[in-house]
């Protein structure tokens, strides 16, 4: 055990503020020794209580005998605990003072303040969970919709590790095979080896590619689809934002150039979070403030996953409309023709044909066509009917990067076989892919990186 794990650590695990109860948590070798000094229950010594018992009593400052709080204390005996160490949880009164006083007392009695994520880090270092499971814990805390929570819960159960282990095992088999043919060249198994390894690598590439593909959906579900509403001034962009979120968030006027800065709102379409960004109308302009808004729109366009390009259906298309249609040509975009409550001038069919994009007619102010627009959005981001139960969804950006790097190595294996390089060369790439995938689960990872990962947790987790 590292010296680091020998410390007994403590932290407040609930939000500090106006609340019914607060929990101060402690883990480590000295947990029971420390709690015994400050906790008084009916006659019994702390040591005599059984595992997973909650005990009523008082926290008392041993220096002056002053009662600090009336509490319930949970006792959890190593190794069947969250951290695999002895754990004590003090359920005290909520608010700021009781929890802080108790934490201070624990520190006075020999505990050290826990760093962010240190409890979960211990669960990992002591082998209860792997790294991907530990990272799922933080994703659970950060989840914004039930769908993203479901993904993280599945990962907490070890789904990533099972998927990745399978892939790593098949890579390991290939490595063993190569080793054997290098060690016993007299068996002349090289030709067989090339075919076998080529087949196996190809199927591994497919699996990794599938995971990366699913991950894209995972990211959208977790972080939300960045959706920008763009269009010439006065077409009704802010009105659409309001219609989508169902309230008057953005200022709407008949004056072109009303929206000067961008406005962001989250909406939820069948569990998929959309971050909708209302932008300033785009046109050639002399007005400097407006111009800044427009530059921002172009930037936003670059960062968006989806664009809603809005046209005013009651007016002839202008040069600026055409320019915008050209601008979104290579983007995931829906053309929204607004003001359908008025006589229509713009030909929807023509636009659909010319620009090869979905075109939806709506009236933002009359709230016509909004449901069809939502359905079109879901179809386009191909997230509708996306059954997360039937896929392994890797959503963590660190994991996705590692998958992508390992994919490069695996593809290089195929390339190496194509040009008939010796087997030794192949095994270098295979080994690298195996190592990279191991970093996802924490099997092959450096200590610095582990520290980095747990720093993103909150204190007390
Ligand atoms: N009060 C409290 N609530 C909490 C937590 C906690 O630590 N304390 N958790 C913290 O995130 C979550 C629950 N997660 C937990 C996961 C594993 C174990 C645990 O003790 N596992 C042991 C024993 C299992 C058993 O008895 O069957 C083990 O796996 O060996 C505890 C909590 C959410 N709620
Ligand atoms: N008849 C009709 N008028 C609409 C509709 N949608 C918006 N309008 C009107 O069009 C005008 C401009 O609407 P906004 O939502 O402010 O337009 P915008 O695109 O955000 O404009 P800027 O922020 O100036 O770029 C307002 O007077 C709205 O009431 C619609 O569906 N039908
Ligand atoms: Mg506006």
From TrEMBL:
EC nos: 3.6.-.-
Record keywords: Cytoplasm, GTP-binding, Hydrolase, Magnesium, Metal-binding, Nucleotide-binding, Potassium, tRNA processing
Membrane-spanning intervals of the chain: none
Binding site for K(+): 234, 253, 255, 258
Cofactor binding, per record: Binds 1 potassium ion per subunit.
Annotated (6S)-5-formyl-5,6,7,8-tetrahydrofolate binding sites: 25, 89, 128, 461
Amino-acid positions noted as binding Mg(2+) in the UniProt annotation, renumbered to this chain: 238, 259
UniProt superkingdom: Bacteria
Quaternary context: Homodimer. Heterotetramer of two MnmE and two MnmG subunits.
Protein name (database record): tRNA modification GTPase MnmE
Organism listed in the record: Alkalibaculum sporogenes
